[in-house]
Amino acid sequence: MSFSKILPLMLAAAPLAMAMPALAQTAPAGPAAGVTTQLPRGAAPSHYAITVTPDAANLKFTGKTTIDVTVTQAMPALVLNAADLTVSSVTLTPAKGKAVKGTAKIDAAAQTVTFDFGKPVQPGSYKLAIDYAGIINTQANGLFALDYTDNAGQAKRALFTQFEAPDARRFVPSFDEPSYKATFDLSAVIPADQLAVSNMPVKGSSDAGSGKKLVTFGTSPKMSSYLLFFGLGELERATKQAGATEVGVITGKGNTGKAQLALDASAAILPYYNDYFGVPFPLPKLDNVAGPGQSQFFSAMENWGAIFTFERALLVDPRFTSESTRRTIYSIVAHEMAHQWFGDLVTMAWWDDLWLNEGFASWMATKVTDKLNPEWEMLLSRVNGRERAMSLDSLATTHPILQKIHTVDEVNQAFDDITYEKGEAVITMLEGFAGEDAWRSGIRAYMKQHAYGNTVTDDLWKAVEGAGAKGVVGIAHDFTSQPGIPLVKVDSAQCQGGSTILSLSQGEFSRDRKDKTPLKWNVPVMAQAIGQAGGGAQQRLILNGSAQVTLPGCGAYIINAGQTGYYRSLYPEANVKALAKDFTKLASMDQIGLLADNFQLGLGGYQPMGLALDLIDAVPATASPAVLAEVPDYLDSAHMMLESDKAAQARVAAYASKKLSPVLATVGFDARPGENPQVPVLRSALVSTLGGMGDQAVVAEANRRFAALAGNPAALDGPLRNVWLRIIAENADAATWDRLRAMANGAKTDLEKSTVFALLGVAKDEALAKKALDLAMTDEPGKTTSAAIISAVGGEHSMLAVDYVLAHRQQYEAMIDVSARSQAIARLGGNSADPAMVTKLDAYATQYLTPESRKVVDRSIAAIKTRIETRARLKPALLAWFARK
């Protein structure tokens, strides 16, 4: 494989015929009746022509736009979205008539601009021309700047845009809502020696004088404003051809080689998606654009034809990139590419249906990654995704997948594990119910019918049922329109004539409201007896209330075979013990699901915690590496639950060393030729957890390798480099901390620099944690790294971190994206088990947030209260179990 080209100045111009969308695009309409909008109905755009002139050095820009607007009813004025913009002139020209000058009135709170032309605007077609100016941000909102050091050690600045959810309005006055789709012509006046990138290839370039050039991009397909993209800097591009589409990666000069994994992934994934969705990718090119730095809110954004991804989630550096990170990079590429259909081609009508974007992209990313890299066993990751969703969904502060969105803050807070992970889990369950063929046929019909348009969730269910998946609507409505987790209980089990008869009933799993009246769901249950390796035939049923099911075979059994169901499975104690005995007869997916279910049932008080620990104890050292890799996290959780009792923690650590050290001895500290593809992930989990618990052998190895750096700068290089450094940083004294700081400042790349700087915040020594917080307030780490240092401090010293940022609130908020500000402090304190944190977070939210914008705070408060109750209740059981070991 070789690069097809590297272009230092501009993107290659593709044949313009290829830029034409493959499917018809209808006239502008705006939001359908019943769809939320924050703009007056009656006017909609069909086309934007935008020219921007960035002044990167002074963090400002000027712009001109002409918008083709269709007015369908008389309007007193035209109202568009605008934020952090000033308007110098505006004119309105009817299709037949003279231009009329207007006035502009900005409403900063509403993020709108009202254009008044002295009399009502009558129905018709118009061109709305606006001259305006805006600011270039230093965090990822609107048009923003990222400063970095290039490979030659020179300070550089690149510009990018981030518009989801409501930030295109910071770049251009616009109808900045997903239902107002339009085509876009974008031009930019830029330095002649820099590369500009947008959704479409460059159509033309001309000299603009004074060392500048005017770059014009091809006309985009009809799309929502939040998908528009612009990037600029000393960048370069490498490409491959994937059928009719040129896929590319764009990085800082000299770094395209580190994006080879992303480039190869794009070229492999695109043909699969073209076939699966039944609609070929309609743009002539698809780039992945890598930006330095990081955000506290997102890693990548699916701009149509120009995906933006922070370098830490796209570039591979053999000196320190772990195997888990490599797989995450692949999955992120797959997720953002899936959005090119789910989200870009077909877009939710309003943010209520955000999950139509995110849940489906997550599900599709897992599917394609597993298809193209079967040795990674990516489907197993769906259990962990389900568990992340259930951790939110088990609390009273949860919300349905379909949630009503009213404000900008509510949009930003909707990007959570319910939207992503529960969305993926429910889709997995529905695909399992419908069957792969019917499900895919429904998806294809949905794409073709709604291409270049907007949809609500029911449009998808109708398409899937129309493809033959009868009954899917009832199940889908239950799991998307109401919150919570079904609890499927086995009330009795009897072996009769070589079959197992199960009596099942339904309840609701909750961590903080067990006395509530349970909701009801139509739950697709898959049950199986495990009489021999592989088990007996699986039996399906839809549970709504109670039912009986007969399973071929006797012995241990499971009621979520394949783990496709979004529910908890509560068994009689005898069956849990039988499953522990027959653990190795289960498929890896069911082993992982069984561990997760029973651990959470123990935490929730539905069964003794010892049953879950017995299952963990039953995992043999010869188990699949993918299953073994789950065990360290459970032991780390038990260790954390006893953090107020150091002697008790020492017992957990001793058991962990006894359980895990033989496995680590088998796999070794370093990679070996021909090892199982899952072993690198297992090795990382073992070293990280044992090191974090203070295992003497692992800590000694970390110290040995760190000391070796004095004579060999490459002594730590490899996929565990950052794991070893974290162990060193956690246990650092002042001298070691200073050495790590020097290492950060001397790092060869910005990615390495930001990673090591963030590790300075994980020190267990409180004095060093305070030192890290003070460092974060300086310019030394870099504008997008400081918040990461503070987050790292919050992991070990949450109260210290929260108190510090409250005392420096305005400085802290300047370090993070606007979209993350209402959530950041809640996330910082959300892992606490201190009752004082509840009071502190509530007081913060009461003073600074609205009822709509404090939802993440309320979720953190609920989690803290539940954590406090759980730890107090389980401490005796944990002490007793580990004392026996």
Notes on the structure:
- The protein has 885 residues and is α+β, with helices and mostly antiparallel strands.
- The chain has an eight-stranded mixed β-sheet with strand order 5-4-8-2-1-11-14-13, with no helix packed on it. Strands 16-17-18-20-19 form a five-stranded mixed β-sheet, covered by helices on one side.
- Helix 19 packs antiparallel against helix 20 and helix 20 (750-759) runs parallel beside helix 22 (786-796).
- The longest helix is centred in the C-terminal third of the chain and has 30 residues, at 855-884.
- The protein starts with 42 loop residues before the first strand and ends with a helix.
Could you give a short description of this structure?
This protein has 27 helices and 29 strands.
List keywords for this structure.
single chain, 29 strands, 27 helices, 22% strand, 885 residues, disordered N terminus, eight-stranded mixed sheet, alpha+beta, five-stranded mixed sheet
Could you give the topology of this structure?
Blueprint: E1 43-55, E2 60-71, E3 78-81, E4 85-94, E5 100-101, E6 103-107, E7 112-116, E8 124-135, E9 142-149, E10 155-162, E11 183-191, E12 195-198, E13 202-209, E14 212-217, E15 230-233, E16 235-242, E17 245-252, H1 260-277, E18 285-291, E19 300-301, E20 306-310, H2 323-339, E21 347-348, H3 355-372, H4 381-393, H5 408-413, H6 417-434, H7 436-450, E22 454-455, H8 457-466, H9 472-481, E23 485-496, E24 499-509, E25 523-530, E26 539-543, E27 546-552, E28 556-558, E29 568-570, H10 573-581, H11 588-603, H12 609-618, H13 625-628, H14 631-641, H15 646-667, H16 679-692, H17 696-708, H18 721-730, H19 734-745, H20 750-759, H21 766-776, H22 786-796, H23 798-807, H24 809-813, H25 821-829, H26 835-848, H27 855-884
